[in-house]
Amino acid sequence: MVENLKGIAASDGIAIAKAYLLVEPDLTFDKFSVENSDSEIERLKQALNKATQELELIRGKAVETLGEEEAQVFDAHLMVLSDPELIGSIESNIRDNKVNAESALKEVTDMFIGIFEGMEDNPYMQERAADIKDVTKRVLSHLLGVRLPNPSMIDEEVIVIAHDLTPSDTAQLNRKFVKAFVTDIGGRTSHSAIMARSLEIPAIVGTKEITALVKENDMIIVDGLEGDVLVHPENTDISFYEDKASKFAGQKAEWEKLKNEKTYTADGKHIELAANIGTPKDLAGVKNNGGEAIGLYRTEFLYMDSPDFPTEEAQFEAYKAILEGMGDKAVVVRTMDIGGDKELPYLTLPHEMNPFLGYRAIRICLAEQDMFRTQLRALLRASVFGKLRIMFPMIATLGEFRDAKGILLEEKEKLVKEGVEVSNDIEVGIMIEIPAAAVLADRFAKEVDFFSIGTNDLIQYTMAADRMNERVSYLYQPYNPSILRLIKNVIDASHKEGKWTGMCGEMAGDQTAVPLLMGLGLDEFSMSASSILKTRSLMKRLDTTKMAELAEKAINDCDTAEEVVKLVEEYTK
C-alpha cells in the first residue's frame, strides 16, 4: 500500500530508488552460557575477519576520497582487531566462563576502554579507548548479523533514509549512487539540507517519521520540489513522477543556457551571483552553474574532514586551489566557524546548555589563537593566487572585529618580514548574523570592507527560535518585516560608506526573497550553486526600480510575513 509523507522540500529534484537506512542498528544482546566454547571462539574469529575485511575496504575508499593522511585513523582500528592481548583475553573469557562471544567481547573491551579513558594525562591512550569502542561496535554487528551503515561504501543507486545527517555523513555521500535523502528532523537551513543543495541531489527533511515507516530496500519516490515522499509507490505513481522529473530536467536545460552570461536585471543593472562552497571539490559545481564568484567558502569542513587540526601547509594548498580555480573572480573565505552543531572530535569544547549562543566561531578563534593564526597565515600566503576576501563569523561587537583584524595584520607583518609574498588587496569583512551587529552596522561600516549577511542565524537569533527545532519552525520567517528592516539597515549603512553588502544565507537563493533583496539594493547574492541559474533567470525578468517600490511597501505597509509574500506575488506575477 502506498504511504505518502510530507516534509520540508530542502533541495530541488525528483528521485526514484530503493531505501538505504543510515540508522544505528540495535546491538543489544543477552548473556548466556554455552556448552561448546570452541564454536563460540570460531564465531568470534569469523566476526573479526569480516570486520577486518570491511575496514580495509573503508580505508581504501577513504584514501581515494580524503587522502592517505586522513585514512590513517583506520590503521589504528585494524591494529585493535589484530591485537593478540585483546583477542586472547576475549577468547579466554569465552573458554573460562563458558559465555557467548558477544558477552565476552563486551566485557573485555569495556575493561580496556575503562583503563584507557582513565589515563587523563595520556591523550594517546585516551584516543585508543575511542578506537576500541568503534571496533567493538563493528565486531558486535557481525556477531549479531546486522549491518552498520557506512555512507561511503554505497555502490548502487539508493535514497538515504536517516533521522538526521551530520555534516561528515553528508560529505561522504557519493552523488553517483545517492539519488536523494530524507530525514526525520531538520529544516531548509540545517547543514544536511545545505549540503544536499551543494551536491545537487533532491532532499526532504523534517518528515518526523520516515525512519519508522521505511525498511531497507523499500522502493521510494522523493519529490524535492513539493516535499512529498511516496513509500511503496504503484506503477502509475512511478510513471507520473518519471514524467515530472523529465519536465524538471527540461526546465533545468532552459536555465543552463544562461550559464555563460552575467546577471543583468530587466533594467540593465548587474548583480553578482556567487556560490557557497564547503570544499575545493565544489568548484566544478560553481563553474557548471555559472557562478560569478564564491561568496562563502566554509573552511570548517577542512577541520571536520581531518583527524587533527589541519596544518598550515594543508590549509594553504586548499585555499590556493580555490583561488587559482576561480581566476580573477572573488573568493570570500569565512574563517573557522566551529561550535553550535559543528564539532571537532579533537577539540574539546565545554558542555553548554545552548551551544548556538555559546563558545563558537570567532569566540573560539580569539581564545585559541594558535589555531586562528595558523589559518590566517595559510590564507595570507594563498592571497597572491587570486582575489581573496576574508570574512570573520559571529561578530557581535566592534572590539571582536578589531581584535581579529589586529591578529590578521600581525601575521601579515610577520610573513612579510620572513620574505613571504602577501597580497595588498585583501578585503576584510564580517558576517552579519547577530542582531547587535546588524543594528550597529553604521559603525561597523566605517571599519570593514564589506558585509555578508548570514540569514540562517540572523533569523533564528532575531526571532529567538532554534532553526533546527520543528516545533518552532513557523518562526523561521525570512520575509518578516522585522528581518527586512534589519537587512535594509545593513545595506544602507554599507552604501553610505561606499562599501558593499552580500548575503550568503539561504535567503539569497529563495525565489520569494530575491525580488525583495533586489529592491533593498543587495549587491551580491551567494547561494548553493544549484540555485544560481534559476535565480539568474528570475532576475532577468525583474526591474530594480519596481522592486525598490515593493521592498519599501513590504517594510512600511506589511505587518506579517504572510502579507509580504502576497505583496511579492502581486509585483512579480
- The proportion of strand residues reads 5-15%
Let me know the average pLDDT: 91
By CATH, the topology of the largest domain is TIM Barrel
Q: Give the CATH H-level superfamily of the largest domain.
A: Phosphoenolpyruvate-binding domains
Any idea of the CATH class of the largest domain? Alpha Beta
Question: What is the β-strand count?
Answer: 16
Tags for this model:
3 domains, eight-stranded parallel beta barrel, TIM Barrel, globular, alpha/beta, 24 helices, 49% helix, single chain, eight-stranded mixed beta sheet, 16 strands, 573 residues, Enzyme I, Chain A, domain 2, Glucose Oxidase, domain 1
Describe the structure.
The chain has helices at 37-66, 68-71, 73-81, 84-97, 101-117, 123-144, 167-171, 191-199, 210-213, 235-256, 283-288, 300-304, 312-326, 362-367, 369-382, 398-417, 435-439, 441-444, 455-463, 481-496, 513-520, 532-540, 544-557, 561-572; strands spanning 3-6, 8-11, 14-21, 158-162, 178-183, 203-205, 219-223, 228-231, 272-277, 294-298, 330-334, 387-392, 427-432, 450-453, 500-503, 524-528. The strands form 2 sheets. An 8-stranded mixed sheet has the order 1-8-7-3-4-5-6-2. Helix 4 crosses helix 5, helix 5 packs antiparallel against helix 6 and helix 15 (369-382) packs across helix 16. 49% of the residues lie in helices and 14% in strands. The mean pLDDT is 91. The protein contains 24 helices and 16 strands. The chain folds into 3 domains: 3-23 and 151-252, Phosphohistidine domain (Glucose Oxidase, domain 1); 37-144, PtsI, HPr-binding domain (Enzyme I, Chain A, domain 2, Orthogonal Bundle), CATH 1.10.274.10; 257-429 and 523-572, TIM Barrel (Alpha-Beta Barrel). It has 573 residues and is of the alpha/beta class.
